[in-house]
From TrEMBL:
Residues annotated as signal peptide: 1-19
Gene3D superfamilies attached to this UniProt entry: Phospholipase A1
Taxonomy, superkingdom: Bacteria
Enzyme class: hydrolase
Source species: Flavobacterium lacus
Organism classification: Bacteria, Pseudomonadati, Bacteroidota, Flavobacteriia, Flavobacteriales
Catalysed reaction, written as an equation: a 1,2-diacyl-sn-glycero-3-phosphocholine + H2O = a 2-acyl-sn-glycero-3-phosphocholine + a fatty acid + H(+); a 1,2-diacyl-sn-glycero-3-phosphocholine + H2O = a 1-acyl-sn-glycero-3-phosphocholine + a fatty acid + H(+)
Protein name: Phosphatidylcholine 1-acylhydrolase
InterPro entries (alphabetical): PLipase_A1 (IPR003187), PLipase_A1_sf (IPR036541)
GO cellular component: cell outer membrane
EC number: 3.1.1.32, 3.1.1.4
Topology relative to the membrane: Multi-pass membrane protein
Cofactor: Ca(2+)
Location in or out of the cell: Cell outer membrane
């Protein structure tokens, strides 16, 4: 809890400074069409100072999302954190993801490295379920502190552009027995080749005294790979997770973002595997969603 409180305080502090330092729109509307260097301000010409609020992970609203196997009775390998009664969830719901970051420190280590504070929130809303008063089924909160060091190493026709590490906390803020959380040290290596962006992110899970989800890495995985590609305002990105020590587990998320009218863009999302939400970390399902996208990788 102290970990989460520290990040929330830092994040609130950054928000109080934004009104004085914000020079551009809060949301970047063409993330993949921007270079990887621009996204993370890796080159000196892209440095824009501290405490500006910009998008981090994709931002979207999926009004229609279908699940092949709703998790009506979540369980944990720790029996104290298993549901005792099933909930009658609809197969259809809405999903929202908001994600922002702000730079806390700029120009460390020979004037090159930066430190960012980021926050991502995902919401799964049973908006079509009258019997459950259209309640939110699950909310996931993910603050993280990110250290980024720029690179420019030529390889495979492109460049490795950054490396770094982040301290990451993710939780669902729910009461016992459906509370879920974990802390991670996440490493990253970013690669760019024209319209392609690839990020490799292995992680190490920190030990928890009272473990609410003991086997979370066996199901969600020990790392993820993000791959993004843009072509004539059409954008594709995928997120792949998998455990290193077993065949079963992991997930794949495929996204297609397409122009509709003006700056309005549609978003199609496919997911298959474990851990679409924290409470679903050991539950496998396939989901399809359609909605509106505001910012992407």
């Amino acid at each position: 809890m102290k970990f989460l409180q520290m990040f929330c305080l830092l994040f609130c502090f950054s928000l109080t400074s934004i009104s004085q330092t914000l020079e551009e729109p809060m949301v970047q509307t063409d993330i993949i069409s921007k270079s990887y260097s621009q996204q993370w301000e890796l080159d000196s010409i892209h440095k824009k100072g501290t405490f500006r609020l910009v998008s981090h992970k994709p931002i979207y609203i999926t009004a229609g999302r279908w699940s092949s196997n709703p998790n009506e009775k979540p369980y944990s390998e720790n029996p104290e954190y298993s549901a005792t009664e099933a909930q009658d969830f609809n197969r259809y719901e809405a999903k929202l993801q908001l994600s922002f970051k702000t730079k806390l420190l700029q120009g460390l280590f020979w004037g090159k490295a930066d430190v960012w504070l980021a926050y991502t929130q995902r919401a799964y809303w049973q908006i079509y379920n009258k019997d459950l008063s259209r309640a939110f089924r699950e909310l996931n909160y993910e603050p993280e502190l990110i250290f980024v060091y720029p690179l420019k190493i030529k390889a495979f026709g492109g460049y490795f552009r950054s490396t770094g590490v982040s301290v990451n906390h993710e939780s669902n803020g729910r009461d016992f027995p459906l509370s879920r959380s974990w802390n991670r040290i996440i490493f990253h290596l970013g690669y760019e080749n024209e319209n392609w962006i690839v990020s490799i992110n292995p992680w190490i899970r920190s030990a928890d005294t009272d473990d609410e989800n003991p086997a979370i890495t066996k199901f969600i995985g020990n790392g993820e790979v993000n791959v993004g590609y843009s072509y004539n305002r059409h954008e594709f990105y995928t997120i792949i997770r998998h455990p290193f020590d077993r065949i079963k587990g992991g997930s794949i998320q495929l996204n297609y973002v397409f122009p509709m009218k003006g700056h309005l863009r549609g978003h199609f999302q496919f997911f298959h595997g474990y851990g679409e939400t924290l409470v679903d970390y050991n539950h496998s399902q396939t989901t399809l969603g359609i909605g509106i996208s505001f910012a992407n990788w």
